[in-house]
Amino acid sequence: MGILMGLATMGLWGVAIFLAAIANRKLENVVVLFWMQAFGFLLGIVYFFYKLNSFDLTSVYPYLPQLVAIAVLQIGAYLSFYKGLSKGQVSMVSSIGASWGLLTAILGVVFLKEILKVNQLVAIIFIAIGIILVSVNVKELINNRKLKLLVGVKEGLMAMACWGVALFLLASLTKNLGWFLPAFLFRFFLLIFLSLLILFSKKKFVPEKIKFPWGLLLLIGIFDMGAFFTFSLGTSGSFASIVAPIGSAYALVTIVLAKIFLKEKIKPNQYFGIAGILAGLILISL
């Protein structure tokens, strides 16, 4: 079950991230994030009323601080990630951001007492080396002996850190609240915070003078919410250290789509870096 749900998460997030990269070149990051989360939340509401005939809010009270923390971390992750996608290579930024599975697995070992095998320790090294190869301008380093990060790397690393902690907290909640409620409820708080952010920054929910991509944002919301559902379902019945790394390999799907539709050019060292990250994410789940 854990491996199957991890693969479903990988596919759903891979498509969602690719579509988000396209949307972020048309709209501001926070507007894209608000609408894709809103559409995903509407999908969750339909399921909520269809499946949950009774709901005791008091059972959720002890976990409200954790749900709020997840929402805040998700905002930080998405906005950083989308900013990176808007100015950097989709294949590079998505690979770095996808490495959140590494951090989630480590947190699972530290706090949930999950045990890493030898192959998973080797995978950590693969991912770390892969991130370095993807992030560094090798030509600049060789010619001028100057370490310079490529555009979008910092945002990708910030997203990786925020997602790693947020999804660890989400995985731990599924043990107590089941697979659906955590992914549904944190999105409620996320939408509140995003609405306040848009209002206080005096941005418009629906910008004028452009053709608003409703259909694209709807698809992103559906795929993203679906990924959170499969992730939560998987971690509720299996180790987070298995589901998270497989799901975070969504970069493979995003890279293929970016290569086909956006015609991105990838340097040799980045190929090795992406391969290292993907190999590590697969190895850590075995």
From TrEMBL:
- What broad class describes the main subcellular location of this protein? membrane
- Transmembrane parts of this sequence: 6-23, 30-50, 62-81, 93-112, 118-136, 156-173, 179-200, 212-233, 239-262, 269-285
Per UniProt, which keywords does this protein have? Cell membrane, Membrane, Transmembrane, Transmembrane helix
Coiled-coil residues: none
UniProt GO cellular component terms = plasma membrane
Membrane topology according to the record: Multi-pass membrane protein
Provide the EamA domain boundaries. Answer: 1-135, 156-285
Per UniProt, subcellular location reads as:
Cell membrane
What is the top-level taxon of the source organism?
Bacteria
Q: Which PANTHER family match?
A: INNER MEMBRANE TRANSPORTER, S-ADENOSYLMETHIONINE_S-ADENOSYLHOMOCYSTEINE TRANSPORTER
Q: What name appears for this protein in its UniProt entry?
A: EamA domain-containing protein
